[in-house]
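Let's practice the habit of predicting before peeking. Look at the sequence and jot down your guess about where helices and strands might fall. Then scroll down.
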Amino acid sequence: MTVSNATPGVLETRPVSAFGGWLSRDRRAVPARPRVAVVVPTYNEVDNLPHLVDRIFSLGLEGVRLIVVDDASPDGTGRLATRLARRARGAIDVVQRDRKLGLGTAYVAGFKRALAEGADYIVQMDADLSHDPDGIPGMLKALREADVVVGSRYVQRASADPAWGPTRRLLSVVGNRGIRLLAGLRVRDTTSGFKAFRADALRAVDLDRLKCRGFGFQAEMAIVCQGLRLRVVERPISFRTRTRGHSKMSVGIVAEAIWRLVPLACGKSHG
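Done guessing? Here is the structure:
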């Protein structure tokens, strides 16, 4: 099934293979223990998810599994993810939650699922294609020498979408610099949602003690990883504004994140 472009959120009865080439191609089932798990939280991403699926699996990575964590999206994203998973021969796993519980808790749920399934490497990214899946192979390669790889907008050769308005650009720059100064972080892009972890590094993080449920989760993870002295490297990315759906970023979300991060930054730890 898919969603009509004319009427967003209204499901049409159409073969899942109509979404693109990957589901219609012959492919081997993913082993019970995936090598790479890609964790993607979703909330009202029914227009973007099929395109993301095609892009990820067209990379040709061996043993990759997509873990979709959906917070009961009103637009039917969770139902669509389940339909895609049925066709994907073990390549897609869906964690369906009964209400909107926050981005941070969605990542934690996805990380726990990936670790329980025995993945060697865990990638996190947004569902809206603002993170280019073509960056995943390079991030995995960088994990040969690092514990954590951050897809960064604030290193050389990186870029942000020129279509960003001045308000969004200011939110990103000021929020990021403020968190860096507050927490004494060495990583340049503290709020990046495009990261890759070695499984043993992610196991070193006490996921149950993470406090930020929303936007601040990314910075909290940066604080924790630095506190654990994990080897963190940044790779340049080209960040793009979503073309489908609506951004969930706002001044209030950034302010709440900074407010929640103050005690974490002062303690430089989980507690």
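How did you do? The mean pLDDT is 83.
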